[in-house]
Every structure is written in C-alpha cells, then in structure tokens.
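Per your request, structure below.
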C-alpha cells in the first residue's frame, strides 16, 4: 500500500553531517516548526509543548554550553570525540530546544485528580509526537536533523542564557541544517518480532 506519510517518515533520519545551506529562510523554518507543533495532539488539549528556535550564533551558544558543561565531567583523554560530536551539531544552521511547560502539567494534576498520575507521561507523549512531527516536516523540506538529550546537565545554563521561564523543563535539543552527507542505514527488527496481528 502506498502512503505519502509513510514515505516521509522513511525519509526522516538522524543526520550528523550538517551544514548551513538551508532551502528555506529562517522565517519559513520558524513558521514550519511552530505550525507543526501547534497541530500536534496533546492530552486534554493541554498544549504543554514549548520550543525555542535558534539560528547562527544563538544556536552555537547552545553547543558552547554543552561543550563547557561536558568538559567538566568527561575525562580529558576521552574528550576529543565528545568535542567532535558537538562540533557536528554546531556546524548546522540552527537548533530547536524542546520544553515541557511544567506549570500547565501541575495545574492539570490538581484540576483532574483522577488522572493526576497520567499528566507527566502524557506530556512526554505530547513532546515526543511534536518532535517526530517537526523532524518529518524538516525532512520533507530536505533539511537534516537529529535529536539530542543533554538535559538535565545544561538546563540551568540554557534557561539563564536565553532568559526562559523557570517552569519550562528542557527535554531535548534538535540541531538541524543542510544535509552534507547521507545518514547511515540502521537495522530494523523483523516485523514478526515487533508486531502482532489478530483478526
């Protein structure tokens, strides 16, 4: 069966060889990201996802913070590979920071006590769905990206650097840019190991 959406999902890969030559303007990328997130579902229409889109030196500052933070904890003899990886993210055109708005989650926990234990997991589902949707939307435009998780190590420094609300909890970082080299193929489980059909 043919499906445009399935084909787009197959086009989405973790791209680590990034460049600055985007096929869209910065304004178009920002519109793509914000429209995609706003159209992604959230439980109770809670809209708990927050995002910051950074370009140029502002984006580089994210990876400076990551490098400065990791330099303090990664042994010096092992740090070069870490620095090289961070440099590959810095080489891109920009970075998307994904956050969960915790005051919204906490309000829902208080307002709907029957479901209180579910709102944090539901917020994680919401942000995962938003990240996937943005990643696919970027891939459709020929823009490469990957998803990184240096939180919570960098949370306080990122919040201070960009003057972000205290209630925004950093969940992931997505460097993006032009695709300078294709992604590596990754093995997939056999379908009979991963799925079950009953009919």
């Amino acid at each position: 069966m043919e499906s445009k959406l399935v084909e787009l999902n197959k086009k989405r890969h973790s791209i680590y060889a990034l460049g600055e030559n985007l096929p869209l303007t910065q304004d178009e990328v920002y519109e793509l990201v914000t429209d995609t997130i706003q159209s992604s579902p959230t439980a109770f229409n809670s809209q708990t996802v927050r995002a910051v889109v950074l370009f140029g030196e502002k984006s580089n500052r994210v990876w400076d913070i990551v490098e400065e933070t990791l330099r303090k904890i990664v042994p010096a003899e092992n740090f070069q590979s870490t620095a090289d990886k961070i440099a590959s993210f810095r080489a891109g055109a920009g970075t998307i920071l994904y956050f969960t708005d915790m005051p919204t989650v906490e309000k829902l926990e208080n307002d709907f006590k029957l479901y209180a234990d579910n709102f944090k997991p539901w917020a994680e589902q919401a942000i995962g769905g938003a990240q996937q949707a943005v990643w696919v939307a970027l891939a459709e435009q020929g823009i490469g990206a990957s998803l990184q998780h240096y939180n919570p190590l960098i949370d306080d420094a990122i919040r201070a650097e960009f003057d972000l609300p205290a209630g925004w909890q950093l969940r992931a970082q997505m460097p993006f840019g032009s695709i300078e080299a294709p992604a590596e193929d990754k093995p997939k489980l056999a379908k009979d190991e991963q799925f079950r059909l009953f009919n």
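The chain has one domain: 7-180.

Regards,
D.
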